[in-house]
Amino acid sequence: MVSDNKTLDKVYTASNHTELMDAYKDWADNYDQDTVGSFGYVAPAAAAQALHRVLPGTGARILDAGCGTGQVGRILTEKGYGDLHALDYSEDMLRVAESKNIYGSLMQADLSKKLKIDDDAYDAVVCVGTLTYGHVDATAFDELIRVTRPDGHICFTIREGAYEDYGYRDRMIALEKADAWELVSMEEADYLKNENVTCKLCTYKVLADGAPNA
Ligand SMILES: C[S@@+](CC[C@H](N)C(=O)[O-])C[C@H]1O[C@@H](n2cnc3c(N)ncnc32)[C@H](O)[C@@H]1O
């Protein structure tokens, strides 16, 4: 591992957005080496593959929500997708993502708030490693649905443990009951393989009346 334990502790113990963004500022430059190299972070590859299953055409306009340094975007690029857009709250992570030249646009925004993005703007949204402890809460699903066109897809991971504790499960079910989206697949998948941490890997299809009023 390149980073010291203090850097990682800051990410896991941050109690507000300012502390979390400060932690990512310290981590941004070593993030790829630590996650892929040391932790065996396989979630980006698994999510890109899950999205590829429902998006065979590579012309889709895709939002990478909580893009971090662009690991998901890089894998989607390798699969041939060329209309990728990035969003993250951390300017430091966005800076690293931008340096990879894979996104058509990058936006600094908070996924817990209303986004300055038009309704139905994307064919698909992918959100990996971001629906987790202390990062983005379950209300973010509503915005992800709003910016995805009807019949478009949303693919995301939720780290094991956070799924029920952070209210993600309840919100996902409420949105299904409200016909905002329908479940395409949910599987238990490796997340940090070398640390034996798993996640829920979920793909939803946004429904025509996808205005979430649940
Ligand atoms: C563990 S990283 C995952 C990054 C990337 N998707 C990946 O799989 O490598 C979590 C990302 O969520 C971002 N993040 C945390 N809170 C956020 C928020 N409220 N809105 C948008 N992004 C946020 C962080 O800045 C960080 O880049």
Account of the protein in words:
- The structure is a single chain.
- This protein is globular.
- It has a single domain, classed as Vaccinia Virus protein VP39 (Rossmann fold, 3-Layer(aba) Sandwich).
- It contains nine helices and seven strands; from the N terminus they run ααααβαβαββαβααββ.
- The chain has 214 residues and is of the alpha/beta class.
- The relative contact order is 0.15.
- The longest helix has 12 residues, at 43-54.
- It has helices at residues 5-13, 17-27, 31-39, 43-54, 71-78, 91-99, 140-146, 162-165, 168-177; strands at residues 61-65, 83-88, 105-108, 122-131, 148-159, 181-192, 197-206.
- S-adenosylmethionine (SAM) binds next to α2, α4, α5 and β4.
- The site of S-adenosylmethionine (SAM) has 21 residues, from α2, α4, α5 and β4.
Give the tally of structural domains. Answer: 1
Low-confidence segments, given as residue ranges, are none
Mean pLDDT across all amino acids: 94
CA radius of gyration is 16 Å
How is the CATH topology named? Rossmann fold
Which word captures the global form? globular
CA(first)-CA(last) distance: 43 Å
Roughly what fraction of the amino acids lie in strands? Answer: 25-35%
In sequence order, what are the helices and strands, one letter per element?
HHHHEHEHEEHEHHEE
| SS-derived structural category | alpha/beta
Number of helices: 9
CATH homologous superfamily annotation: Vaccinia Virus protein VP39
Order of neighbouring strands in the sheet with most strands = 3-2-1-4-5-7-6
**Biggest sheet: strands, sense, closure?**
7 strands, mixed
